[in-house]
């Protein structure tokens, strides 16, 4: 990794502009199919962790949160409702970079969820109604039947486009960042790694305000 692509020394007081640049760079270079993919970890009532890949659909760097969308009744949705903290990891292998985020989660405001849902492909909007996400399914044919039943109920049997309302059980999740770790690959496995932490204060059901970041350089 060239020296100018390692973390600066001293570390910046605010890590979010650097994270935003890395995120934008990964998307602009298009070096992997889903540069906005991230591993999301949650925890269940039994203390067991679970992880899956989701897509980061929004980064609000000046406030310090990201947004992804899901079925609120899915396993991750239920776990986040019961234990509203999460951790995510972005890994841009070709760019030799990794970002880890941790923090509390809240549901997105309805307009934010409505806007994104309306932008999705028609079949994806129908599918959000048809899939009882994370629940047992008898067969692939049963899933097809569920899709057809939704089309019939919404009057969309022959449609390939049209208005599909957002299901009440589907929407956005905001992860407010109180810990962020930036990692950049170095020669001889002497990587560059640093963590920033801050205290968050809840303002309302959707929003936190953040204190000053504290930076710590870490051994790789």
From TrEMBL:
InterPro entries, per database record: Pyridox_Oxase, Pyridox_Oxase_N, Pyridoxamine_oxidase_dimer_C, Split_barrel_FMN-bd
Ranges where the Pyridoxamine 5'-phosphate oxidase N-terminal domain occurs: 29-152
Keywords of the record: Flavoprotein, FMN, Oxidoreductase, Pyridoxine biosynthesis
Gene3D superfamilies: Electron Transport, Fmn-binding Protein, Chain A (2.30.110.10)
Pathways involved: Cofactor metabolism; pyridoxal 5'-phosphate salvage; pyridoxal 5'-phosphate from pyridoxamine 5'-phosphate: step 1/1; Cofactor metabolism; pyridoxal 5'-phosphate salvage; pyridoxal 5'-phosphate from pyridoxine 5'-phosphate: step 1/1
SUPFAM superfamilies: FMN-binding split barrel (SSF50475)
UniProt GO MF annotations: pyridoxamine phosphate oxidase activity
Purpose: Catalyzes the oxidation of either pyridoxine 5'-phosphate (PNP) or pyridoxamine 5'-phosphate (PMP) into pyridoxal 5'-phosphate (PLP).
Positions of the Pyridoxine 5'-phosphate oxidase dimerisation C-terminal domain: 170-220
Xref: Pfam families: PNP_phzG_C, PNPOx_N
Keyword Oxidoreductase in record: yes
Gene: pdxH
Reactions accelerated catalytically: pyridoxine 5'-phosphate + O2 = pyridoxal 5'-phosphate + H2O2; pyridoxamine 5'-phosphate + O2 + H2O = pyridoxal 5'-phosphate + H2O2 + NH4(+)
Co-factor binding details: Binds 1 FMN per subunit.
Record-stated family: Belongs to the pyridoxamine 5'-phosphate oxidase family.
UniProt entry tagged with the keyword Ligase: no
Annotated EC: 1.4.3.5
Cofactor(s) demanded: FMN
Binding site for substrate: 57, 116, 120, 124, 189-191
Protein name (record): Pyridoxine/pyridoxamine 5'-phosphate oxidase
């Amino acid at each position: 990794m060239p020296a100018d692509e390692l973390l600066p020394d001293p570390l910046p007081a605010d890590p979010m502009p650097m994270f935003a640049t890395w995120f934008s760079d990964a998307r602009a270079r298009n070096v992997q199919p889903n540069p906005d993919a991230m591993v999301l970890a949650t925890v269940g009532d039994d203390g067991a962790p679970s992880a899956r890949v989701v897509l980061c659909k929004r980064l609000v760097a000046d406030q310090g949160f990201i947004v992804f969308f899901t079925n609120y009744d899915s396993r991750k949705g239920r776990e986040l409702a019961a234990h509203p903290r999460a951790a995510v990891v972005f890994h841009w292998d070709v760019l030799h970079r990794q970002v880890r985020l941790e923090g509390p989660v809240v549901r997105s405001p309805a307009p934010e969820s409505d806007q994104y849902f309306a932008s999705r492909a028609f079949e994806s909007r129908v599918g959000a109604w048809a899939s009882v996400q994370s629940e047992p399914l008898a067969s692939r044919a049963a899933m097809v039947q569920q899709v057809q039943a939704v089309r019939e109920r919404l009057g969309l049997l022959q449609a390939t486009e049209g208005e599909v309302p957002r299901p009440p059980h589907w929407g956005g999740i905001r992860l407010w960042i109180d810990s962020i770790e930036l990692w950049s690959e170095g020669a001889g496995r002497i990587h560059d790694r640093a963590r920033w932490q801050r205290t968050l204060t809840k303002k309302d059901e959707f929003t936190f305000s953040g204190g000053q970041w504290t930076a710590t350089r870490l051994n790789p």
